[in-house]
Amino acid sequence: MDVEALLGRLVAWPTVSDRPVTGIAAELANCLEAVGMRVETLEATEAGKCNLVCSAGPAGTDGVVLSGHMDVVPVEGQPWTSDPFVLTRRGDRLVGRGACDMKAFLAAIVVALTRTPPRDLRRELVLMFTHDEEVGCLGSRALADKYAAEGRTLPTLALIGEPTSFHMLRMHPGHVAARITCAGRAAHSSRPDLGQNAIRLAARVIDALDALAERWRHDVRFPELLERPFVVMNVATIHGGNAVNIVPDRCIVDLGFRPLPGMSPEALFEEIREAVEPLGSVRAELVRVTPAMLTPAGTPLEALLRPWAASPDTAAASFATDGGNFERLGMRTLVFGPGSIDVAHKADEYVPIDELHRAVDVVDAVVAHRCRLP
Ligand SMILES: [Zn+2]
């Protein structure tokens, strides 16, 4: 099987997070069933969404988990110079949505296992392909909930092939989405004293959030790994008001912040609540938590990847991955894969062709060392 051709087939599924992934999951499942893997499609409650988990080798033995998400980010409003869902060769690059983030790694896994089928493994190989990573790691959270409840034993080492240009990343902050609703009282704008302006209230909320973000900057952790070694906050969207002659009765502020490993996302959210709710008719809600990830330096997987790595050192990712949820299952994850995060999520996303081919060899080596060799 040709890895470039397979990547073309995977890119052709427009698996933007608001669309189904069941088609691409079925195509991957067919390929992996054909090489003898046990295949489980775990349907989500939302129609069209599923995780795909494939395994080979003796269950409960500590081989390795290889993982990737099947969804991609939207293309609307981006200046693509070719159809984003038609993988296009340009010089030494393959261009398409998901080319590096992260269908290249999915294709590399399938091609490596087609070349050397996972038969007679000594230790278990598990593939975990997730949905809705790009909108808050929802698929991996469902997997972690399910497997934690079932007490399923999984390999303790995991590789997520996000585009890192083959740098080994062992840590990343999490992400928490929160919503603050400011309530006011509508009135005709000619009599503003009869109303209560929710947007003005939101302005005070944002001042309070800024003050809190400034306090958080002083709690420095992991300065050796992070460029911004503190919790960063982003006031992301604001919606309020109906017409220019009405005092607005409602304003909603959505924000995100990024807890560091070892911090409680819920406790940080409580600090937000305590900062804004005393301002009056303000309600803070925790919308979604994507956990941080921290893998200790020096795992056997790190040693295994080092010969393939762009640098012998491990580093941190600025973006969150499914690895935070996998940590709850006792997995120590490294994020390491073909392509660059600098071109992911943008127009004309691409993977360098040589890196795509190298990813096949990396998968082959990892499976050989973790699952085949004594
Ligand atoms: Zn990704």
How would you briefly describe this protein structure?
The chain is an alpha+beta fold.
How would you explain this protein's 3D organization?
With 374 residues, the protein is of the alpha+beta class. It folds into 2 domains: 3-172 and 292-372, Zn peptidases (Aminopeptidase, 3-Layer(aba) Sandwich), CATH 3.40.630; 176-290, Alpha-Beta Plaits. The chain is 31% helix and 24% strand. It has helices at 3-11, 22-34, 99-115, 138-150, 198-217, 265-276, 300-305, 323-327, 353-372; strands at residues 38-43, 50-56, 64-69, 88-90, 93-95, 125-130, 157-160, 168-172, 175-183, 187-188, 233-240, 246-247, 250-257, 282-290, 293-294, 314-316, 332-335, 350-352. Strand 4 (88-90) and strand 5 form a beta hairpin. Helix 5 (198-217) packs across helix 6 (265-276). Bound molecules: zinc ion (ZN). Residues 69, 101-102, 133, 162 line the site of zinc ion.
How far apart, in Å, are the first and last alpha carbons?
28 Å
Rg over C-alpha atoms, rounded to the nearest angstrom: 23 Å
Model regions low in confidence, pLDDT < 50 over at least 5 residues: none
In total, how many domains does the architecture comprise? Answer: 2
Strand content: 15-25%
H and E order: HHEEEEEHEHEEEEHEEEHEEHEHEEH
**Sheet/helix structural class:** alpha+beta
Global morphology: globular
- Total number of helices: 9
CATH architecture designation of the largest domain: 3-Layer(aba) Sandwich
Compute the average pLDDT: 97
How many beta-strand elements? 18
CATH superfamily of the largest domain: Zn peptidases
Give the strand order, joined by hyphens, for the main sheet: 1-2-6-3-7-17
Task: From the 3D structure, determine the CATH topology of the largest domain.
Answer: Aminopeptidase
Q: Provide the CATH top-level class of the largest domain.
A: Alpha Beta
